[in-house]
Specification:
This protein is α+β, with helices and mostly antiparallel strands and 239 residues long. It contains eight helices and nine strands. The strands form two sheets. Strands 1-2-3-4-6-5 form a six-stranded mixed sheet, covered by helices on one side. It has a three-stranded mixed sheet with strand order 8-7-9. The radius of gyration is 27 Å and the shape is elongated. It starts with 8 loop residues before the first helix and ends in a 7-residue tail after the last strand.
């Protein structure tokens, strides 16, 4: 049928929101629990948590309900995200062997709708299901996203405190070498500069007093948060 509604098709059926949800680390479950999906080089780790489902958090029925919801949703997410290779699913620990069997069968039934070949092992004593899924192409995330050039895909950068310590060590090394005869300009990212001018201002003043020399600090937004540059203002040379 020709779609003639003035509201965009993706907006009307909330497709944009659903597409965005595919790339989120957490997936909410109807009962209030949630799933965490992490892609690593070695495997895909899927963790199920009870979350906001506090009605008898440790009650076997609550755990079973959350795990049953997760069994269907994990199978769905594997298809949506096109995840392949070795996958480890960490279900909430179930004491009853009957409940473990029920969840495992539900998971196997949900995987039956998958066109990719899958192989699963029964739930281990630690509550883990180890499985493999045929990898035909790259995962959806790998297709849409590239590794961050800033953090190189780690998702982490050094804290302002760590960078301040590194800068102080480098300054101490330079000041010891020149002994009262050098003027330094330190170029850092603005977020690091804020730390140097506030919490660590006294430490830097103590360095000047102990070793002599003069230091000035400038912020440069073009610098990486983990980069800094120390320049001898007399010669213009980078130290």
């Amino acid at each position: 049928r020709l779609y003639s509604n003035p509201k965009p098709l993706f907006v009307k059926y909330r497709l944009t929101q659903q597409i965005e949800n595919i790339f989120r680390r957490q997936v909410q479950l109807p009962s209030g629990g949630y799933i965490c999906i992490d892609e690593t080089e070695a495997l895909i780790a899927v963790d199920i948590n009870s979350g906001k489902n506090r009605s008898g958090k440790d009650h076997p029925e609550t755990i079973l309900t959350t795990n049953m919801e997760a069994a269907h949703e994990v199978a769905r997410q594997l298809r949506l995200r096109n995840l392949g290779g070795l996958i480890v699913v960490d279900f909430i620990d179930m004491r009853s062997r009957k409940d473990q069997t029920t969840v495992y069968r539900a998971f196997k039934d949900a995987l039956a709708h998958d066109r990719a070949r899958t192989k699963t092992c029964p739930i281990s004593p630690l509550g883990l299901v180890e499985m493999t899924r045929q990898r035909e192409t790259e995962s959806l995330r790998s297709t849409v996203y590239s590794p961050c050039p800033y953090c190189q895909g780690k998702g982490l950068v050094k804290s302002a405190t760590t960078m301040s310590v590194e800068i102080q060590r480098r300054l101490q090394e330079i000041l010891r070498r020149y002994r009262k005869t050098v003027q330094l300009r330190v170029m850092v990212h603005p977020s690091i500069l804020e730390r140097l001018r506030n919490e660590d201002a006294k430490l830097l003043a103590d360095l000047e007093e102990e070793f002599g020399g003069e230091m000035s600090f400038r912020g440069d937004a073009a610098l990486h948060m983990e980069e800094f540059c120390i320049i001898n203002t007399d010669t213009g040379a980078e130290l």
